[in-house]
Amino acid sequence: MNNYQKHMHDIHPDIELIHDTKRKMRSAASTDAKNRRKRSYRPIAVLIAVIIVLSSALTAIAANRLVLSNVNQTATFDGIEMTITDVDIATDENDIAQREKGEILLTLKDISGKGRISQFTDIKDFDVRGFKSDGCEMINFDSKTGVATYSLKVYDWPHGGIDYFNKRGKITIKSIATNRKAETVDTELDVASHLNNKATKSGESSFGIIDAQNGYSTSYLVELLKKDEMNLPVPAVSWLRITNMAMTARNHLNIQVERTGDMKDYNFAELKLKKSDGTEVKQINQDVHSEIDYHSEFIFEVTEKELEDCTLYAEVYDYSEGEAIEGKWETVFHK
After folding, report:
1. For FRET with 327, which of 11, 40, 166, 282 sits at 20 to 30 Å CA-CA?
2. Contacts of 275 (CB under 8 A, 6+ apart)
3. Could you give the CA distance from residue 303 to residue 78 in angstroms, rounded to a whole number?
4. Cα angle vertex 197, ends 191, 198, to 5°?
5. Contact 126, 173 (CB under 8 A)
6. What does each of the 335 residues of the chain score in pLDDT, given as a tens digit?
7. Are 234 and 189 contacting, i.e. CB atoms less than 8 angstroms apart?
């Protein structure tokens, strides 16, 4: 053993010194790890803050609309299945342009195999809780699957009827009509020669028509006619008669009609006034009377002289060969 080896052999380490050194090393390692974690937390915290800000912005952008996709809420009655698929409704009643774009999409399918749902099947009596409706229209029929898709136009929410993000909206269908036949027919009436020049005015009515494209509402003030001052059959439509017809203030032509007892359930007709070149005269109102007595009043913006160049048509929707299916298809949608 040389002197170096002998010197090393005689060295005996201080146990307390070793323990103290280990403690200091562990403390240093712990401090370094904490510093690394703090440094890594900073970008994460910044990212979270950015996400929160963006989420708030997106919520603000979507705050005035209730948009639901793939809702898939289903109700079945008498072998016919109704499914709500999509909801897109503006929730700001002051936003006229957006308000008129409210739409609910739903489908109907006859799962009984009776084939009652076709391209000629219409939803007739329905209600969307909390909303007014501007009608229901079939927008697609898949002949392979037998599924009909309908668009329900909904608008307005008086008195804050629904808390859209906490409560549920409800759709109820009460009747469906099958085998619709639609055609446009010439009424074969010379309107100008049948005007009631002694017609009694029953009062005035004011209303607004919303222009969704341009985002404004146009107000109209119209005169209404007293009921049943005429009894003029419409040759082309056996169950329709004119009960009053006259020129009123502001160059308006009022045509009041009544659907008679010969009318099949759900049959209806819409009057159209067309010029000789085929363009339609502006119609500014209809159905201003109660539907209970089957009276409607169609009002056109036209002068008496212009009438000489016009023909009165009726768009007739006839369900005489079809079936009225009564029931209750009801389901909900919610955020």
Report:
1. 166
2. 281, 306, 309, 310
3. 51
4. 140
5. yes
6. 544 344 444 444 454 544 555 555 555 555 554 555 445 445 555 455 544 444 433 333 344 667 777 788 999 999 999 999 998 876 655 555 555 567 889 999 999 999 999 999 999 889 887 677 767 899 999 999 999 999 988 765 544 444 444 456 789 999 999 988 889 999 999 999 999 999 998 877 766 554 444 444 566 788 889 989 999 999 889 889 999 999 998 899 999 998 886 666 678 888 999 999 999 999 886 555 544 466 888 999 999 999 999 999 999 988 878 888 999 999 987 76
7. yes
The 3-state DSSP class for residue 27 equals helix
Q: What is the spatial distance between Cα 213 and Cα 98, in angstroms, rounded to a whole number?
A: 9
Indicate the burial class of 61 (C-beta count within 10 angstroms; 0-12, 13-18, 19 or more).
exposed
Contacts of 327 (CB under 8 A, 6+ apart): 77, 78, 80, 173, 174, 175, 176
- Cβ neighbors of 90 (< 8 A, separation 6 or more) are 64, 65, 98, 99, 101, 102
Q: Which residues contact 204 (CB under 8 A, 6 or more apart)?
A: 221, 222, 223, 224
What span, in angstroms and rounded, lies between the C-alpha atoms of 283 and 300?
A: 4
Residue type, position 216, single letter:
Y
CA distances from 200 to 14, 244, 271 (A): 122, 9, 22
* Backbone dihedral angles phi then psi of residue 270, each to the nearest 5 degrees: -115, 130
Say if CB 169 and CB 154 are below 8 A apart: no
With contact defined as beta carbons under 8 Å apart, do 126 and 172 qualify?
A: yes
DSSP 248-283: ETTTEEEEEEEE-TTPPTT-EEEEEEEETTSPBPPE
Residue 286, helix vs strand vs coil: coil
Mapped onto helix, strand or coil, the DSSP state of residue 94 is coil
